Amino acid sequence: MDAEIYPGKVLPPVVRHISQVKINLYAEASGDFNPIHIDESFASQTPLGGTIAHGMLILAYVSEMMTQVFDSNWLSGGKLSVRFKAPARPGDTVTVRGKVNSLEEKNGVLYATCGVECCNEKGDTVIVGEALAKLISKGTTRGSK
Amino acid sequence: MRSGSNDKAITYEELTPGYEFPPASYELNASLISKYLEAVDSKGGVLNQVQDVPPLAIAAYAMTSMSRFLLLPPGTIHASQELEFFRLVPVGTKVNCQAKVARRLTRGQMRMLVLEFNVWDESGEIVQTGKATVMLSA
To answer: Which domain holds residue B103?
Structure first.
């Protein structure tokens, strides 16, 4: 895998359609019932003008893209730093994209630094940031039951 | 981020830098993770091929466990997130979460909280760390 990772490499995008049903499902699954996500009558009275998806739901798609490329080197050893720039709303189709910006060695481990971005169908940036994944690892650390 | 309504919930004014939330423990059981995977559209996807808990699920539950103790206005939103994944844990693992207030910022009408959390597994090994900035509605 490591030889396939190089600066400039474009990561395969993840595309997801956002619906209120999906947002409600995420609220149930995560226990995050903030009305800005699930209560249209409340959300419509706020400056956001309607319900929005949980930031952590959209971030899960970013993680999915990183997992597809880096697998366990992302899931154990990955690092993420993002800003939520705009809300994702029911009806939006969001696309997560990423690109390897650089390869760096730190303490004998090679890391890929990737720029990550999630945009809606209008091109508005929903999430922007950076993700770091190990490229050379001496074995994945795994917890035990 | 969830607006808390717990009996022990504290308000924004009481949240000073260094404030530590009561520790929380939760089991990342199969039913919880299955529900999570369905919600993030990953049923049958890449995350389902492994018997490990997706790190973002751990982060989501850590955030929720923190918010149980917060009485924040409805409409509070997530402004930024940092995460570092140290260790994969299998489904069924019980994890412990400790969170604290790192910063509290007020800029004009805008109020923000920076919250840090650490998640450990049962053997005391660090699983994940995170830092979330949340913006409170006026």
So the answer is: 12-137
- Name the residue among B79, B87, B48, B82 with its Cα closest to residue A85: B79
Q: What is the distance between the alpha carbons of residues A139 and A142, in angstroms, rounded to a whole number?
A: 9
Mutate to test the interface with A, among B29, B81, B117, B137 (most CBs of A within 10 A): B81
Q: Which two tokens stand for residue B126?
A: 């660090």
pLDDT tens sequence across B6-58: 456 788 888 899 999 999 999 999 999 999 999 998 754 444 455 899 999 99
Q: What is the pLDDT of residues B58-98, one digit of tens each?
A: 999 999 888 878 777 887 889 999 999 999 999 999 999 99
- Residue A67: CATH number of its domain: 3.10.129.10
* ipTM summary value: 0.90
Best of B26, B35, B40, B94 to mutate (most A CBs within 10 Å, chain A): B40
Range of the domain at A92: 10-17+53-134
- Contact call for B3 and A34, based on CB within 8 A: yes
Considering only residues 87 to 126 of chain A, which have any Cβ-Cβ distance to chain B shorter than 8 Å? 87
Q: Is residue B47 part of a domain?
A: yes
Task: Provide the domain count of chain B.
Answer: 1
How many whole angstroms separate alpha carbon A57 and alpha carbon B40?
6
Report chain A residues whose CB lies below 8 A from the CB of B127.
143
Number of domains making up chain A: 1
Question: pTM of the prediction?
Answer: 0.90
